[in-house]
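A further point concerns the way the authors explain their paired sequence and structure data. The central task, working out the structure tokens from the amino acid sequence alone, is never made concrete. I therefore recommend that a typical entry be quoted early in the introduction. An entry of this sort, consisting of the sequence and the corresponding backbone structure tokens, reads as follows:
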Amino acid sequence: MKWTDRIRQVKILLVSAAILIAVVSLVISHYLTRDLAREERNKMEVWAEAMRTLSDPNESADLNLVLKVIEGNNTIPVVVLDSHGQCSVVRNIHIKGKNRADSLRYEAAEGRRMKAAGRFIRIKLDESPHSDYIDVCYDESLMLKRLAVYPFVQLGVVLIFVVVAIFALLTSKKAEQNKVWVGLSKETAHQLGTPISSLMAWTEMLKESYPDDVLLPELDNDVKRLQLIADRFSKIGSVPELVPASLNEVLCHVADYMDRRTSKKVKIVLDLPGRDVIVKMNQPLFEWVIENLSKNAVDAMGADSGKITLHLEETPTKAVVEVSDTGKGIRKKDISNVFRPGFTTKKRGWGLGLSLAKRIVEDYHKGRIFVKSSEVGKGTTFRIELRK
């Protein structure tokens, strides 16, 4: 089974488990809060009856029991309002920083709020049709409120756990991919080393035997090019040394290299400032990035004529390189995937070039690389920003 398939299955399992836990928690919490709310309603009915008995006691009433019931409520907030809406009794409502007049207004307002919410019990003080009454208004207890909130807190904790778990899986996947790319790069450099050394020796022998051959300098350049490529591969996975170098020089080297190896229909334009832009970089690796972007631009234009523009500018804090082409462009849905390892729109290709370019720019040079703009049928611009 592929690693990506395993990751996908684990993601689905974690999300399914989170949804199941959330649903079960919400259902259980619903029944618990409903039962507790019903129990509190029953308690308030008993408490209201005790208030009625205290307001109109009879000979058979046990006032000690009545007072015990009234004093026994230590959790449910209660406001008793008379028929005129004035507050007469308050329990379990704590008010800080208010004088007595403000407290009375606040308590009456709380009672009206509870009454408007339907949490009140009306008690007539006698049996006559026009007798006065009191409204025993009550609110949910602190325990009931906490119980209502608890499943959402639990859901948040579960979601955080799922996010952390998925992040850990993705990080593990990325680390494993990095090991593969690093191992592949170093092995490639190692395998290239022996034949390159042989080619260098043969080239020197040919120079001695045929010193005037016009093809030998080009052969020598190609061997040096192979040596440069092997050196670049060997640097992947290790921290490269960054030294001050000219971006103008890098872009000129790339333009010259690409101009000699692409169709004459493709025009390569250099747009450079009047003075050198110096930044700390590893020149061979950064040249590789620009070459890769330029080769992708050539591929995007295919056999058609077109133009590649290498633009350089600087600000007080950063240097900016833009590689633009007049090729086929990138679809909007693909822009977010162009730097992902393995993604490619070419019939032939591994989909590693832009991934390595991103690693070189962002991990090694602490810069940024991104698609600045792209339009299908008109072209694409990649932008690189390096700190000065």
Observations:
- Residues 171 and 338 are 19 Å apart (CA to CA).
- The radius of gyration is 39 Å.
- The chain has a mean pLDDT of 82.
